[in-house]
Amino acid sequence: MQILVYTISEDRDTVFAAIRAGAMGYLLKGCPPRELIESLRELYRGGAPMSPKIARKVIGALQAPDGKAEKELLSQRE
């Protein structure tokens, strides 16, 4: 079974918890129905569909040194 998360939750902790729990895709509600259908097909074909906003969060987390998000690199004063 392959899991695609379809939710309104876009905070970093929720996204990464879902992926660590086995989700192979993550879509935000509000996407057009056609996008949802195509994402399910992509998942079936072995892809990992994500809303662009979510993909950006994942890439940002992977590019940050030591896995820290960019905003976590700045102090309160900065």
Annotation field: number of helices: 3
Please give the largest β-sheet: 2 strands, parallel
Strand order of the largest sheet: 1-2
Write down the overall geometry. elongated
Tell me the helix content. Answer: 40-55%
What amount of the residues lies in strands?
A: 5-15%
The string of secondary-structure elements, in order, is EHEHH
Low-confidence stretches: none
Distance between the termini: 45 Å
Strand tally is 2
What's the overall average pLDDT, rounded? 88
Q: Would you tell me the structural class of the helices and strands?
A: alpha+beta
Taking all Cα atoms into account, the compactness measure Rg is 14 Å
Question: What does this entry show, briefly?
Answer:
It is built from three helices and two strands. With about 80 residues, the protein is α+β, with helices and mostly antiparallel strands.
Can you offer a commentary on this structure?
This protein is an alpha+beta fold. It is 42% helix and 14% strand. The protein is built from three helices and two strands, in the order βαβαα. It has a two-stranded parallel ribbon. α1 links the parallel β1 and β2. The termini are far apart.
